[in-house]
Amino acid sequence: MMTAAIEASGLGKQYRRTWALRDCTLTIPDGHVVGLVGPNGAGKTTLLQLATGQLTPSRGTISVLGEPPAASAAHLARVGYVAQDTPVYARMRVADHLRLGTWLNPGWDDEMAQRRIAQVGLDPRQRAGSLSGGQRAQLALTLALAKRPELLLLDEPVAGLDPLARREFLRGLMEAVAEHGTSVVLSSHLVTDLERVCDYLIVLVASRVRIAGEVSELLASHRRLSGPRRDPGTLPAGQDVIEESHTDKQSTLLVRTGDPVHDPAWTITPVNLEELVLAYMNPANDIPARRPQLGVVS
Amino acid sequence: MIRLTWLQFRTQAVTAAAALAAFAVLLAATGPHLASLYAASGVSGCHGGSCQNLAGSFEAQVQSTAIYPALYLISVVSILLAPAVIGLFWGAPLIARELETGTSALAWNQSVTRTRWLATKLTAGGLTAMAVTEGLSLMQAWWAAPLGRAASHGAPAGPLTQGRFTQLIFASHGITPLGYAAFAFALGVTAGAMIRRTIPAMAVTLAVFAALQVAMPLGIRPHFVPADRAVISVAEGYDAGGATGPGGSTLTLVATSLPGQPGAWILSSGPINAAAQPVSTTPAACTSSSIENSPDFDGCLTSQGIREAISYQPASRYWPFQWIETAIYLALALALAGCCFRRLNRRRS
Asked: Which of A14, A45, A89 should we substitute to test contact with B (largest number of B Cβ atoms within 10 Å)?
């Protein structure tokens, strides 16, 4: 098992009387492009803010690349972060942002920053406040990438972007990741944003990991079975029902299983990532007895 | 980090430089004429008793012009307001604006710790604030020097020749502006870090700073060192005056200066009887109206054993008081800065 990009144990963050994140235990592996998916309010943003030291935990612990968040200048240099809404200094020019990067980051890759700015068509003299949402996101991503971090955390980076800008942003991200082998954690409430780029998926619902694993493995281990009505309790061991729906005569089940399903009564169809995530996100399916073992598959 | 600080601080720094320059031009344009009036007045070469008259007529001459009293007031008030303006517009937004716009997530995720980020910003902003305020103060002191010399030659106290201990002068000259500037800036930054919103932080900064600037001369500064006491005869009481209340029996004696202690800061004065007890009523022997408003009133009081007790801070304590007050404000500024570091490193909740 590799070093964890993020490791949280019993992590909680309380705002006055409400918990933004409560008793969250998870391990996000290094060396992947990880999609952190969950409904609004699942605690994704809070988790990433805790991971970057923007917030302090009320309970529990979190470590990033084996150290407490924002532990030192050297540790800050290893972690890149693009916050939700991709904030930039409205009154500073694009070029000033790059200078800021040069000044504050010993590992700054200015050649890469300049190239990226040119690629995405940003005018260095333009004030950041007058950029479009997509351009602003690209600028914020450039700042985070040119720092050459080992781990890049992106909080809903494409939420505010139109489909074209979304594609451009993710393409730029993937190029850089492929070039430098950066680990990435991307959060989103829409799995469709992420399925093209992620090779590892974590579904977070109400601070809890519903499922985590490599995308290819998740797809291979889940199937939709449909056939004559049947009590899910009679399924063979090793087939965990994630979601079920029944009519008078028919049952449709989404099961997780490591083994092939041989029962000829079933019509077996593969599951796509969106269906899989929706099944896990649906609170109606969150029955503790059926919850799969938490943990990391790597 | 210093370069980023400069990049973000440029606008304010240019504004401050422009304000300083405007102030300098205004004073440089009028200062030489004021100095020439002083030179022509003959105060500088005076001897003995003529000095007081010459200094008084110089003051009256300056007072009669339209421009100098106005400039004097404007310049002194500018020095007093500068720290507040700096605290409001440099201090309060320093952290609050970053939090409001979310750029703190950008600033604090570069390869620079928050401690260094804040240390650089506080140092740069604090030193600039101190330099600007003290710069104003020194320029004003140069400009107003002839008036100060006239006062030391015995010109009667007036709007332009106030003692060095009066709040307006004490707080705008010497080294106190350094302390006020550092404190107001640190106060603004801390309010911003705690409240996390710029406008409320500005309001709190202004309220706290103003409250302290009122409390200091009224309640705190007089007690830096225990006041000296003097008992003088009523007749000796230079500027002493008797007053009577409606019943004709209330006695007050107000001293504005003390013989033998030029420039002393009179904190309080009042009549005492032969037993050194404070009295508040005119002795019966002196209440007849014919005596009361005559020069004999002083003599009557004296004959009844009434003397005047004065508590005061001697002029020689001016610089110790300047140091004490500046040290208090600098210590407060450092304590506030410490709060900011703790707040930032505990991370926002």
From this structure: A89
